[in-house]
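Q: Could you fold this chain for me?
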Amino acid sequence: MKKAIVVGAGIVGLATARALAVRGYDVTVVERNTRAVGASIRNFGMIWPIGQPDGELYENAMLSKSIWQQVCEETGMWHDPVGSLHLAYEKDEMDVLSELAEVYGHRGYSLMNPQQAVLKSSFINESGLIGGLYSTDEMIVDPRIAIVTIPEWLSEKFDVKFVWGKAVTDIAYPTVFAAEEEFEADVICVCNGADFETLYPRLYAAQQITKCKLQMMRLVPPGNGERIGPALCGGLSLVHYRSFTAASSLDALRRRFEIEYPEYLKWGIHVMAAQNGAGEITIGDSHEYGLTPDPFDRKYINDLVLAYLSTFATFSNNYISETWNGVYGKLTDGNANLVLHPEEGVTIINGLGGAGMTLSFGVCDGVVKRICFK
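A: Sure. Below is the predicted structure, expressed as structure tokens.
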């Protein structure tokens, strides 16, 4: 049996380990921390195909969703295929949603009037609501549970071995060096996320890659165990996702936002809300770019998020139980992921940006498939 080593136990590393294991590899995952604590647990838990344009990215997102469903069903892990609802409170927002419903007609999105939208969620702010765009493609998982459950599932089903608390310091194929230990394998995959400069630093310095810091919050559950329904999004989200650039009316909307919401655009803020299995509501987020992210959170940014949230969603309890930030690697050349081969037998998979939960299972499955058929 061929051996494989995966560096990193975030979602990209776990997706890579799965793709190798299902193809018969004896897989070992080496993680520098005693548990994964990076961007893979610091997100909404959204599997978000609606944010991906047609073609390979959307296909990878839908493949990822199907794998997520399989994993959730086999492990009994909580998941909610509840979909998403983008809301419009101005004509130009509704123009974009109407155009997207037409452009992506093959995806089966539903354009809704205010009455139809409110039936999807009783937490929508009805004041000034014009309509919404509903998609059934999106699914919510709890990233904090998933990042613990998936290693257990990989170990039990495929005998994947996990080495926790050992930082990989060097690779010289076929050997991986971690502290005092050495591991050898036929295939080595480096999936170390925002720590990308710690291995192959010169190679990364030559790439168009930076880091993105986001700020997020969590609200305590609404009373009486109420569910918010689909993930809720305001108009600012329309200028964030690549798939929405398919609407020609988006330019006019962006120009208005530049006048009315300059601070939101400056800090890369668009606002969404998703509910986990415990009923808690995750809200955010912002986007600050640079190779050395500021470690300190800005209350000002969180206040902006909360202010905009109130324009499209109303919750019975607005008590904030947690705030945090996350950092991930993101390409600046417009590409969705970075796959490099620094030496024979070694593959780097990185740069999935803010779409790691959405794309990892699909992207990594494709990368491993190509490795296997070399």
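A (continued): The first strand starts at residue 3 and ends at 7.
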